[in-house]
Amino acid sequence: MPAVSRLSPFTRVLPIVLVGALLIAASLSILKVSWLPDPEVPILLPGEKSPAPPGPGHWLGTDALGRDLLARLLAGASTSLAVALAATLLSLIIGVGIGSVAGLSGGRTDAFLMRVTDLFLALPGPLILIAVMAAAPEPRTLPFLGTTAEPALVLCFLVLGFLGWGDLARMARAGVLEARQLEFVQAARASGAGPARVLGLHLIPQALRPVWILASAGVGTNILAESWLSFLGIGVHPPRPSWGSMISSGTQYLLTEPWMCIFPGVALTLSVLGFHLLGDFINDRQAVRQGGGDVGRQAAAPVLAR
Amino acid sequence: MRRIILRVLSLGLCAGALVLAAACARAPEGRDSLRVRLRHEPATLDPALANDVTSTGVLGPIFDSLVRTDPETLEIRPDLASSWEISDDGLVYTFHLREGARFHHGRPVDAQDVVFSLTRLADPERPTPAAEILEPVIGSAAFREGRETGIEGLETPDDKTVRLRLEHPYAPLLARLSAVSASIVPRDIYNDPDEKYLRNPVGSGPYRFAEWRAAQWLRLESFEDYPGGAPAIPRLEFRVITDLPAALAEFRRGELDILDELPAGALRDAPEEFGDQLQLWPILATTHIIMNLAAPPLAGNPQLRRAINLAVNRKHLCEVIMEGTPQPASGILPPGMPGFDPQRPPLQEDLDEARRLLAEAGYANGDGLPPLVLLFNANPRIQQLVEQVQIDLARIGVRLELRTGDQAAFLEALSSGSWGGRTVHLVRLGWNADYPDPDAFLGTQLLSRNAGLAGNFSRYSDPEVDALIEEARTSLDERHRMELYRKIERLAVDRDACWLFLYFHRDEVLVSRRVRGLRPLVTGDTTIPFEKLSLDD
User: Fold this and answer.
1) Chain-centre distance for alpha carbon B430
2) Which of A231, A252, A259 would you mutate first to test chain B, the one with the most B CBs within 10 A?
3) Which residues in chain B have their CB less than 8 angstroms from residue A249's CB?
4) Which uninterrupted H or E stretch holds A77?
5) What pLDDT is attached to residue B301?
6) In the prediction, which pLDDT does A300 show?
7) Of B192, B183, B62, whose CA–CA distance to B113 is shortest?
């Protein structure tokens, strides 16, 4: 099947719409726009029956404590996005660093770094995640960043980031190995470009192409991970909203007041879907540009062939 | 196409494996077992260590104590002791053991077992929460401090008689001896250094321990040799179902006979759906948030504590958040408990006064006050409760950080006062009276020498209150005692605001129609006398 035909309007537009909506939602709550109530303070008066169903004044209803569900949903978007982006960035830095060093140096260093990567890939991620989140002391201060207002949030992305770089390292290594053989890289080297120039201008950008795909899907996976940590009660702490904790408290009301559970659930699904589709979209774009097949799969081939 | 077939096949296999796994995990059951929901795993199966209602609820049917509290009327009734005499000066208690009482492994219960079981509570090498029961007995202090190898005041005139000699009169003694923690255990099994009894409890109660599948269920079987005959229900099954909506679904399907609580949101429609299966019992229990009085900023700052108490809207909490089940607290003692003062009004919300007191405490508008760490045990409904308290306190500028953990870690943090290396300032606590005497609340939780594990988790310490508690314990005049307890309550609540008082409970229980003979219990659903119940077919 030629790759070009996969770039249907659906795959082109949907990821942009979904990820864009998430970004807008997150920024709305960060900017604290005036029409949005405070997600941590009830909008119902004391004594008023809560949870209130969707209606005027609270378009998505309220939660059991009378807090506006829409405001909490948007604030939850910023929580999810902050944790997922920071974690993915951290994974990218570690993964690309280790992968490209391994791919460039080869030999023993390569073998050693790849075994370390294997070790990280073999770790039972969810289990370690739970153990660390439940047991680790919360960081009160961070180097370079000073005192943190959200220790749990920071811990969450640190743990996710440190556990999630294995695949990225493999992909980066494969990309570097492959890119080294490409003609334009060799041409650059032949025309007298120094190692730094070759690496920075030609090798890394080429090697990173498949990595972006994986990283994009990784953001989705991290959003999901943050949600289930908060669902289990060991993610971000109340009163800060997280989709996971909203779903968790909503499940109690699933049969009587389902909106508390459904809205955050739908938001979570769409966001994860959005980032996965974005990965596909990047893949297809690169395939079109290269006129080749499936870049991600090609790049992964050397790893699989070993 | 082949890939699709493969996928469908593998999906089917997975589903099959899941169904199989679920079928294997299912507890053996039948029409002849009574199935009771447990909200979490019991923290211990050793009655001497049991300090939470889940553990005592499971252990109660396995063990007998010397006497028992009638769960409906709060009267003290015979249990292992068929009769007893108390000397006129209140210093000598003589118990006569019931004829024919046997342990589950066959041996008759004798006086030495009683001495062993009670001595065990005060063992200096293995501290138990119930050690305080023996405090008035002659020689218990010497034993606890390791100066003696036995307790002098515990005597066995013959095989079937036990005598307790006290240093001073002790009014709550009988009530305290009725607690599950004062259970009588067979000495030949419970002095095992390998501690096998921790997984295989052996008692003399109407039910014997049969099997425990960790985190799934715990099965008890009726004890044939129980004096007065084996109980009518041959099997009790305690099923650990943490998830409350799932437990409710089980009840609806008829897979559970007794459900100990209802999920949020379900109570409103429950009367219509469940009819007479829904029971609401006023019980001897309170919910409050204890304050760490050993650490700043709550230590030595009654204005701050009073400000916190004034900032909570208990009416809203009870009527909306807890759906009308509990009633706002007026203090420490719940209605129904002897000594309860019906004249005390429920504690009120007063934000202006709270702000004024906060400023007086040195933290105007909360400036300079660090966030207070509040620990609660993981449960969605309790989370709602503490989040509401967090919202309420934020109105006067007191910030809370909410932290949660599993039950065992929670109990550990409760007695140590710290959590993951950080000081815990506040802990959400439900307190059920384990014996029907105001001492179960005021003595256990306020006496300064009970600090920590023994029940005074907030480490409250006041010489005047200490003296009043001791006086109330040693007085044999009931009316005078109750006056003393009211005075203690006034000091602890109105003067010191020692905790954040929230509400008095009503127990919401769902009981299936096949259960016969269950009446409202003042001591709650963890004290159900299973041996008196029967099942319809």
Assistant:
1) 8
2) A252
3) 380, 383-384
4) helix A69-105
5) 93
6) 36
7) B183
Which one, of B63, B55, B176, B48, lies nearest residue B117 by Cα?
A: B48
Positive or negative, the Cα torsion across B334, B339, B342, B346? negative
* Distance separating alpha carbons of residues B485 and B469, to the nearest angstrom: 7
Taking an 8 Å cut-off on Cβ atoms, the answer to whether A254 and B245 are in contact is yes
pLDDT digits (tens, 9 = 90+) for A81-128: 989 999 999 999 999 999 988 988 888 999 999 999 999 999 888 888
Given B245, B390, B420, which is nearest A251 (Cβ)?
B245
Phi, psi at B323, each rounded to 5°: 60, 35
The answer to whether the pTM exceeds 0.95 is no
* A248 closest CA partner among A192, A234, A256: A234
β B217-222/B400-405 pair status: unpaired
**CB–CB contacts below 8 A, A to B:** 73
Q: Do B443 and B473 meet the contact criterion of CB atoms below 8 Å apart?
A: yes
**Cβ contact, residue pair B245, A138, below 8 Å:** no
- Amino acid B188 reads D
Helix (H) or strand (E) holding A186: helix A183-190
Distances (CA, A) of A277 to A14, A78, A170, A299, B279: 8, 20, 22, 19, 52
Give the H/E segment covering residue B157.
strand B154-158
Are B268 and A134 a contacting pair at CB < 8 A? Answer: no
Q: Among all chains, which residue has been given the structure tokens 């929580």?
A: A79
Tell me what the mean pLDDT of segment A54-60 comes to.
86
Residue that the structure tokens 């044939």 belong to: B224
